[in-house]
Amino acid sequence: MTFVVIDNCIKCKYTDCVEVCPVDCFYEGPNFLVIHPDECIDCALCEPECPAQAIFSEDEVPEEQQEFIELNRDLAEIWPNITEKKEGLTDAEEWDGVKDKLQYLER
Predict the structure, then answer these.
(1) Which one of 27, 31, 42, 91 is at 20 to 30 Å from 4 when CA atoms are compared?
(2) Mean pLDDT score of the chain, rounded to an integer?
């Protein structure tokens, strides 16, 4: 099993989760993070660290967010690995909690 980054990370991209990951399985896009499912060891350290509450265990991803399971897999194959915490996006607080942000995902 793996953990999955879902919709609320888009345009927030806090990186607190990256800092605690023991296997460096996070990958970074312009305004979103993903978890590589083949590298995640299901340790659950990242989930409570996410200020946007955008990380779920694969079996607990909400029904309306299921497409993010495959999206994490696909984007982790093309985006660069991130291993250290960075400053969040300047308008992250404004976007935290906004619904249906998939349309704003930058690839």
Answers:
(1) 91
(2) 97
What gap in Å lies between CA 41 and CA 78, rounded to an integer? Answer: 20
Q: Which neighbouring-strand residues pair with 28?
A: 33
b/e map of 73-94 (b: 16 or more CB within 10 Å)? bebbeebeebeeeeebbeebee
3-state helix, strand, coil in the chain (%, to 5): 30, 10, 55
Domains, the chain, ordered by start: 3-82 (3.30.70.20)
pTM of the model: 0.96
Contacts of 40 (CB under 8 A, 6+ apart): 2, 3, 23, 25
The CB density around residue 62, as the number of other CB atoms within 10 Å, is 10
- Distances in whole angstroms, Cα of residue 75 to Cα of each of 31, 36, 48, 91, 107: 12, 8, 23, 23, 8
pLDDT in tens, 17-45: 999 999 999 999 999 999 999 999 999 99
